[in-house]
Design goal:
117 residues, mainly alpha
Amino acid sequence: MTGRAPRRPVHRRTTASPAPLRPADFAALASFLKGYLHEDFREVHGSVRAAAAAFCADANLDERRQLARELATLARIGANRPVRDLRRFITRDLGSRWEPASRSEISTLHDLIRAAI
């Protein structure tokens, strides 16, 4: 016996990578963004709120539910990502011209769609 305490295993804290943002997982969101938050959305609708209201008036219940689910998923997955990454995903990968300035703008959009369910 050497008088030393037994060695304990070293537990290293690993940071899990955030879930990937894949356009294929957000088909309803991409359709909404291209149809309502396109390059002329401010001229056509005036605001994101008005664009969401137009979508809710045009869409059936299943379409509204699917969009709300995808927005909730985006908010959850995006919670640990920089806003610029979310903005890039929304514009570059999903084809929108809306550039949310914060995560709260995505949450607000989700709340507007969810209220119409």
